[in-house]
Amino acid sequence: MTTTQPERRISYLAIPTDDSAHEGVKKLWAKAGANMGFVPNVFRAQSLNGEQFLAWWNYFNLLVNKEGHLSNAEREMLAVVVSGLNRCVYCAVSHGAALRVYLEDAQKADQIGVNWRHAALTEREAALCAYAEKLTLTPAEMTAADLEPLRAVGLNDEQILEAVQVIGMFNMTNRVSSALGFVPNVEYHAQGR
């Protein structure tokens, strides 16, 4: 007897099909499938409004995936800290997987994801995590003095600006993902382990 599993919902909203999706979105899906072996559910779940999704993706990709002022591990660490604080399941799981890969240390990455204060962090990593936490939880309380711990561990203005942009991007993306119930791909759970 053959049983079929019901299709898992990945968003509270409709998901475009391969036939109905925007042409640019279909190209991104194909590229992701070829590079990653799967299409991230966030690519499907956010693509209902194709032009808006592609605009988000271009900025997100620039901040998170391209060569920047911070290391890939630092950007993913910020993503994981912000997503954990916001309790965003999709982003905490997917970026936790990326952090495990970049750190090559699953234990440290998992500790950062749950409570960064329990991880063996460098002074620079701890300063970035503390800044991400304050900006995420109490943005109205930010002052120029909050930049001093970042400067004390060697971050320059370009690196600080990039950190702020990554933190801001994940606060926004977490809210979209959580509001619409995005479900992470199962592939993320095994990455970097």
Automatic annotation (TrEMBL):
This is Carboxymuconolactone decarboxylase-like domain-containing protein. Residues 52-133 form the Carboxymuconolactone decarboxylase-like domain. It comes from the Bacteria. SUPFAM superfamilies: AhpD-like (SSF69118). PANTHER family: CARBOXYMUCONOLACTONE DECARBOXYLASE-LIKE DOMAIN-CONTAINING PROTEIN, SI:CH211-175M2.5. It holds the Pfam family CMD.
